[in-house]
Amino acid sequence: MSEPPFEQLAGLDRLIHEPARLSILTALSACKSADFLFLQRLTGLSKGNLSAHLSRLEEGGLVAIAKSFDGKIPKTTIAMTSEGRKQLERYWNDLERFRKEANKWKP
Amino acid sequence: MSPTDTVPLHDIHDLTTNYSDRQGLRIVPMGLALILQTIPQVPTSLFGIDIMLIALAIGLGGYFLIGRYYRRRFGTVEEVEDDSAYLFVGYLVLVLFVFMVAMAVDLSAHPPVFVSGLLVAVWLTVTAWRSRAVRGEYLTIGVVLALLSLLPLIVMAPPAVGRAYAFWFGFMLILAGVRDHLSFVRFFPPVEQER
Hints:
The structure holds two protein chains of two kinds.
Chain A lengths: L4 H6 L3 H4 L1 H11 L1 E5 H8 L3 H13 L3 E8 L2 E8 L1 H22 L4
Antiparallel strand pairs in A: 1-3, 2-3
Chain B lengths: L8 H9 L10 H9 L8 E2 L2 E2 H24 L2 E3 L5 H25 L5 H16 L5 H14 L8 H30 L8
Antiparallel strand pairs in B: 1-2
């Protein structure tokens, strides 16, 4: 017998499942890297909120953050790690599996 | 609800994948440069340099300068290239070579169709058809340009077709660029205020 859906959902990666972080990871999975300004414009998050989300993703090993200078302007570049790509792939596979199982449910 | 809830993930992926192609204003100078060549009062050369080369320089210079505006306003994305750099350069050289041959044919053999124009139209149509980056409007532009290239068969003398072609190509590039820019800008949600 398969696991009850609630327990399955509890197993979803919560680091990825949060909407803002999922948006960030979706963008980063489509490119080599992006800078902080792009992710801020894309998500509409404040600098503080975006920094907090990026820190959590970096702590989880999903993204790598590099700080540099473009002339005199500080620049923060964010790239997804190979582990991050694997985990995002796993997350989508999990969701896909749950959806397939949900299709079998009867009212 | 956070601002990110309003932006579909598919669109985020698509915009990031084709980030520089979505920056529509970058092709507007090329459109203006094409139109510039069709104005009768504009001299055919300036300081001994052919106006076509000057227009090309304006178009390419504008493309890169406007890229800086997008980088400052919307940030930078390092895109994943489809092909290796060598393949891309080889492809560009081949396209340029074929175009030069077509232009030579137009100038020397005076064929009943505008060959170089038709070549650009076919290239644009095929690229728009298969590319993940180019939008539907470029398919329309390609078809319109192909029809313009065939005009010498029916009504116009080739030089007049060349001018009409450059004008409409420039005009449609400007329209497509502005349209792309507006949808690019509308894509980004308003940024949250710091508390």
